[in-house]
Amino acid sequence: MSAKTINPNYVRIFDTTLRDGEQSPGATLTSAEKLEIAHGLARLGVDVIEAGFPAASPDDLKAVRRIAVEVGNPAEGESALSRSRQPPIICGLARAIKSDIDAAWEAVQHAERPRIHTFLATSPIHMRYKLKMEPEEVVERAREMVAYARSYCDDVQFSPEDAGRSDPEFLYLVLGEAIKAGATTLNIPDTVGYTTPDEFGKLIECIIANTPGIENTIVAVHCHDDLGLATANALAGIQAGARQAEVTINGIGERAGNTSLEEVAMTLHTRRAVFGLETGIDTTQISRVSRMVSNYTGIAVQPNKAIVGANAFAHEAGIHQDGQLKNQSTYEIMRPETVGLSHSRLVMGKHSGRHALKVRLAELGYELDDEELAQTFSRFKDLADKKKAITDADLEALVSDEIYQPREIFSLDGLQVTCGTIGMPTAAVRLIGPDSELHVQAAIGTGPVDATYKAIDEIVKAPNTLLEFSIRAITEGIDALGEVTVRIKAENGSIPRRTSPQSGRAHRLTFGGHGADTDTIVACARAYLSAINKLLAASGRYGRPEKVTEVAMAEPVS
Ligand code: KIV
Ligand code: ZN
């Protein structure tokens, strides 16, 4: 038995970025991106990765299975004795129906520690209008399906969906039956983000006090942020005795999102005197995984977001700076290094070699193969010619830009723009397309970015709408790298759609892209092309459609 199994003060971190997070309006991830994120989550030290909803499609099942195989097992050559920690539990979501449970098991069984998570709604409104089932039928179905999942797997989690609006007495009954049928974790979701911290904390307390057999299980909290209370509710539940927190990176998820991992982890860490609890999270990995998720999903992190927003550690006002110089703790309750931020650290210069770059990247947690290192080194040299002080943040932006990119169908070979107050903003773009042919196109726009995107559109012919565009400087100073994130929506009907496991609604896909360069217009072009490449790959126009594990979008398909 491991320390955390017997330690009553250990809070398990169950990350659902790849399942509930992927249900965010706008998050579309390829299976390669999902795998990278899963590796990042494992390095971060999460206990459970909910890798997806395998019944959604054969591609979703394959994506979860790949994570189970590659992330849910010890690395090659690692023995049970030599490894520092166990691989995370890999979990698959299933509605309370046999075919979903079969699919979940098919996907997760390859992990050293698999888990099936099945759910069924228990609120009057869900039972009546969504399930069209009587309460007794719900109890029976929950019991049967938990038992069915247990026939495959020793680790079964059950969630009474919309518990926040369910009758507590009914919850004790359903949960008690689920426990008798073999559930090992009972997750209490505030599915629509309706409760307040006081109510949710009391609900968890009452469930623990009144559900027969619950003392031998783990109680989990799963909160949504519709009223901006997701983190507060989750913490209230933890204070009431829950020992698993269901969270996502950057708080992405259905509608307003889920409880954010970084907020829960850093609250428990920073205020340990209040909570007296611990997690297995390596907080120094937080910034890196946050950036990866934002880059891959195309969902920018708001600047004032706690812990991972660009302004979270910036102390702009003069009085703050003065106070800071005297003693950092005057205005800083956490050190940026604790969450893996080291913006000010000068790491390398113009004369640093390939080996030094490899070593520094490995220290930051990036293991690149020879080809990836060569690509990153060439970008590093270009950057070092333009920028004297290269920091860890610059290196991370370069790696994200070079390595974490979709298959390139079109790549940027050259760009020239003319803009200003005289004349018309014009862009000339050179792209290398499939089969290595060169395409050159010029266009006029309302500004340099518009002109660049119009020229790209003329070449790639992938009609889309630009939904979101954001630009930020990676470091301070006029020579900073600019990082651009975009999100686009396909305009034609050839792109796959996807049905939400919860609402059952079909949604249109959107695609995110990112790019980084000291020339911000080049960064804009790179970001747009990376989103376009995902869209083209999903359309199947250039070969077999890329495995896109689609998500429920904001906009239901009519
Ligand atoms: O919010 C919710 O109820 C869920 C369940 C599937 C656990 O995501
Ligand atoms: Zn949820």
Main features:
558 residues; alpha/beta; TIM Barrel; 3 domains; three-stranded antiparallel β-sheet; 18 helices; globular; disordered C terminus; binds 3-methyl-2-oxobutanoic acid; binds zinc ion
- Major beta sheet, strand line-up: 1-3-4-5-6-7-8-9
Tell me which ligands are bound: 3-methyl-2-oxobutanoic acid, zinc ion
Question: What is the CA-atom radius of gyration, in angstroms?
Answer: 24 Å
- Model regions low in confidence, pLDDT < 50 over at least 5 residues: 549-558
The CATH architecture name of the largest domain reads: Alpha-Beta Barrel
Helical residue percent band: 25-40%
Task: State the end-to-end distance.
Answer: 52 Å
Number of helices: 18
Number of strands: 20
What name does CATH use for the topology of the largest domain? TIM Barrel
Mean pLDDT: 89
**What is the chains' assembly state?**
single chain
Largest sheet: 8 strands, parallel, barrel
Derived from helix and strand composition plus strand pairing, the structural class reads alpha/beta
Indicate the CATH class of the largest domain: Alpha Beta
State the domain count.
3
CATH H-level superfamily of the largest domain: Aldolase class I
* Strand residue content: 15-25%
Shape: globular
Write a short abstract of this structure.
The chain has helices at 3-6, 31-44, 58-70, 98-108, 124-131, 135-152, 168-181, 197-210, 230-239, 261-270, 272-275, 286-297, 318-326, 354-363, 370-386, 392-402, 448-460, 520-539; strands at residues 12-15, 29-30, 48-52, 89-95, 114-121, 156-161, 185-190, 218-223, 244-247, 346-348, 390-391, 411-418, 426-432, 438-444, 464-473, 482-490, 498-499, 506-507, 510-517, 548-549. By secondary structure, the chain is α/β, with parallel strands linked by helices. Helix 2 runs parallel beside helix 3 (58-70) and helix 6 (135-152) packs parallel to helix 7 (168-181).
